[in-house]
Amino acid sequence: QVQLVESGGGLVQPGGSLRLSCAASGIIFSLASMAWYRQAPGKQREWVAQILAGGSTYYADSVKGRFTISRDNAKNTVYLQMNTLKPEDTAVYYCNTPVTLKPWGQGTQVTVSS
Q: With contact defined as beta carbons under 8 Å apart, do 48 and 67 qualify?
């Protein structure tokens, strides 16, 4: 059974940083592309960043240069380092396998506010 568990969110001031984690189980993690998504209030869920099994990374234009996605295959965990956070980054953040989406986890709330 696939399980995706996100953590690391919180309240941060504009310009601050957070590091999100997503622990995955029930998949062959080392072979899986992983991605982060986010959903702001009243908006559709959007793709944020992706890391391929080989380590190549891709980012939405809105976060390029500020966010970094990484993975630790030994821990079956994908990370999202978020720097220079803006109020418009406020959302619930989720991870998933973008090739074939799995059931969504509970997500982790990120609130950027002064």
A: yes
Contacts of 19 (CB under 8 A, 6+ apart): 8, 79, 80, 81, 82
Pick the closest to residue 4 from 43, 31, 36, 39 (CA basis). Answer: 36
Q: What gap in Å lies between CA 20 and CA 39, rounded to an integer? A: 15
Residues of the chain by 3-state class (helix, strand, coil), percent to 5: 5, 45, 45
- State the pLDDT confidence band at 94, using cuts at 50, 70 and 90: very high
pLDDT 10s digits, 15-72: 999 999 999 999 999 999 999 999 999 999 999 999 999 999 999 999 999 999 999 9
Is the separation of the CB atoms in 92 and 107 below 8 Å? yes
Distance, in Å, from the CA atom of 44 to the CA atom of 71, rounded to the nearest integer, reads 26
Apex CA 82: angle with CA 79 and CA 86, to 5°? 150
